[in-house]
Amino acid sequence: VQLQASGGGLVQAGGSLRLSCAASGDTVNNYVMGWFRQAPGKEREFVAGFNWRGGSTWYADSVKGRFTIYSDNSKNTVYLQMNSLKPEDTAVYYCAGGTSGSNYYTKQSYDYWGQGTLVTVSS
């Protein structure tokens, strides 16, 4: 599967953005999908995950209640709706897909990665 992330940009604190992760070559339903982010000088960290089988979602504590991950099967796309953005949300955001991981909070469980999209939140 190939993943293409988009939707990043510059937004003021308190604002919203929606990131998209379009899949090609396979259907997103065959994967556990996740969003990660990497701020300058920091490790890539987990943000949100989604499993089409059962529709379960899980989030990092830092974004819980503000971000929502969901999919549109008709568009073969996974989204990350980000509300109430904070300056500390500034990072490059990556979407990822995995099939056989043991812990989908960790990047090691994801085999396929998109190229990243930059989100900048100004104070």
Describe the structure in your own words.
The protein is mostly beta strands and 123 residues long. It has no helices and eleven strands. A hairpin with a 4-residue loop joins β7 and β8. It is globular and about 40 Å long. The termini are far apart.
Summarize this entry quickly:
The protein is mostly beta strands and 123 residues long. It contains no helices and 11 strands. The relative contact order is 0.31.
Helix/strand class: mainly beta
Number of strands: 11
Average pLDDT number: 96
Shape: globular
Q: Main sheet?
A: 7 strands, mixed
Q: What does the radius of gyration come to?
A: 13 Å
Percent of residues in helices comes to under 10%
Low-confidence stretches: none
How would you spell out the order of helices and strands? EEEEEEEEEEE
Name the beta content range: over 45%
Helix tally?
0
Query: What is the first-to-last residue Cα distance?
Result: 37 Å
